[in-house]
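Supplementary Data S3. Sequence and structure tokens for construct A.
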Amino acid sequence: MTGKAPGDIEMAGLDIRAIDHQKPILRTPNRTTRAAIRHFFCYPEPHLKIRPTAWLDGLRGAAAFEVLVYHYHLKFLGQDYNPAYGSRVDTRQWWRLPFIRNIFHSGHSMVNVFFIISGLVLTQRSLSLIRTKQHAKLYPAISSAMFRRGIRIYLPAVIVSFFGMLTIAFGIRHDQHIEQPSFLGQVWHWMIACRDFANPWHDYDHAYDLVHKYEHTMWTLPLEFYGSLVCWVTLLTVSRIADTRKRTAVVLMLCYFSFVKGNWWSLNFLWGILLADFLLYQEAEAASQPTGRLRLAIKAVWFALLIWCLYVCGLPDAHYADYSLPGFDWYYHHVPQSFRFIEEGGRFWWMISGSLLVVCISQLPPVKLLFECRPLQYLGKISFMMYLVHTYVLELVGVHFKDFVSSLVSTPLDVPSLDGKGTITFMVPQGRAANYFVYFAFWSFNLPLVFAVSGWVTRYVDDPSIRFAKWLEGQFVDDA
């Protein structure tokens, strides 16, 4: 942490200028209330300094928020959210149209956004050292990052899943697949689950094995860790290659081998390396960049590609498709063989669209500026913890609140049970207005709660985990 001038305070891990000593100190209730709200939600102050890579933080925050929206709509609408506009007679609602459907159905692509951003951020500084041949600084930097990475990823997840385990042990949540007859048995089961989840040598026979038994959204974390290792091994491989073209050729060769194996996550991280090197090249060659009409034409191409990426990000799942997918069928008919059986081929296009989305934004300064705004910087700050806790908040509070609000504007409807031995009573909202009321009431209540919990967990779990990883490195490494 850098030194702070008088009047600076530290809030949520961010250095801010809280008091202007040239003016009288006025403590109006309004200012005090705003400061308390910012502190409660871990929200950044107005004078937060924007770093050159701040747009990546904002984009990561937007991606994490989109994953939240995707999961919440999945719970709210079930699989009815998936069909595209016109898939069936009953799927002509306006919210199923292309681009609009991205609001609740681009969560798949956002995982790829996470991974390419990680590949970029993890390697940009090291690539800068490679380009300037500062190998004496490069190797300690990679060693330090590798030492801390596992702790950085897994420790917050273990702590969050511990509280998830307690909700199972005390009967607050129910999951027959993991419930144990005793509290100690539950704790032991959780410890084994964490051991297998964080074990880099664990043999994953199926993709589902990546899932932490106490929080299914954590399935991306092992891939995040493995992708980090791919980045650092690749950096060591190309560390003595000063020529950018030759270095790029080596990384492209690794991309090819990942492609033919359908290894989409490693492709994302390798593309992150290529993008980081490309951005450093652009920075070094800024004086020779195109100008005038040629520059505008290039920007127009990037913007058109951005629009296409947004369109494909809304690609529906195919494995629910007992119906056609107007506007999207072509994509499922054009999937490379190595990706054909990965999520029915959908992952290929989610990977392409999510990755190119980041590339396009990196080339469009006005769009980058959008992701530097305070709300998205805030989402970037809490993004990791929001990703980990949002389903817990939904299951523990959100669903019950939704059911309560729905009961106020609903009438009972008896439906025959599947076994034909009785009926099941559902509470059905009375008309479209009632549906909208329940929907907006749910979001109005749940979003502030998720933001608050994510901010608290960021402050008291994530930030201390980062400091702990740094401290632990210092205990083992003399010059850390």
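Construct B, processed identically:
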Amino acid sequence: MWKYQCGRHLLSLLIGGVVGMLLFGSSINEETISWSVEVLNWLPEATVRSALSMSWLLGALIGASALNGVLLLIYLVQKFNISPMVLFLLFFLAPSFALILAVGALLLIPTIIVCIYGMIASRNAAAKNFRSLPNGNGNEVERVYRLHHAFKEDVSALALKCRKESDRWTAIYVLGLIALVCLTLIIQNLMVMFIVFLVYALLLTYLFRLRAQSLLPINALLFEQCDPIACASAILIFSRRGNRLNLKMNMLFAQCMLYLDDPQLAMDSLVLMRRGNSAAELNYQSLMAEANYRLGDQSALERNLEAVKSTKVNIGAAGNLMMQDTIAAIQNKIDLMNQHFDQCEAYYRKVLPQMKLRFQLVDAHYYLGMITFVRRDFDEAGEHFNYVVTNGNTMSYRERAQRYLDMIQRHIEAAAE
């Protein structure tokens, strides 16, 4: 999972270098040089003056090293579930921050090497796992989708409106980042700067929430209307810019493909997905497990289960709960494959009252209908399948449920004769 953060880490180091160049490069003067010569008296004076004469390069090194140390510390905090307040306390302790800066400087070159390796490795892994789309890009996803499924052009206005809203919040984020850099150059007081960063972090969280809300109309096409065709079409329109399609909302698109009974394309879209945190990893493994179940690959299902169990969650109690739910869902698919219907029925009856979204209810009713149909409880099976037919819209479950209802009707007619 760390490989998917390498590109972001490298970009952060580049930004840190630029900020350091602007912030520290212009602040090195003769007084600073004299002080450095006095502190570093164990080095030749000519060496110190020569190093400090390259002020812009030195500023970039300080900025990149400081940010590298902070990012490495954040990764440790996430891995071992340490409170984020520890970071804020460390920033107020000058010796601790100096230590972070020193560690960041020492590990700067190794970190860059590891990040480059991680980016290459993740790209090679994606190419290796990309099963049916040789080019491995969004254009191929759209081409294959149009070959196998209907495409709804009438959702174009909705998708473009959502993209406009999303772009607006992204632009505000970029402008806020530029404003933060400018304030960093102006404000000299550490306490004021800390408050500015804290306010920016709070506003950033709220901004990301607004950006996520701008995508809710597309989510609703699947979650509430049970229309994976419309939802997938909207995602493809949303993702296209000019002649290039860089697939967005990969998990939602994969769900659409699963409900259109196309697990292969679901897998291909998931391969293009970045898994930069434990929540994304759990969602990825859950959807891959569903696709492997549709393909009848039990060994792959068990690998998905092991991958989930080995995932290090770093979002507290909510993360542990999410992990347990994912394990239970994948284990349920293994039980279905092994025809352990008692465990499966108990699982669906347990989660059914907790489900709020319409597509989740359709999914649960479909599998409960299958289980009761196998047990020849045709009355209850008919109730479940009728729910699926009534609410399933364009989901593949709807057509299958109708076939089961026809079989039940023929059985009733045969019994009456």
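The two ends are 61 Å apart (CA to CA). Strands lie at 240-241, 244-245.
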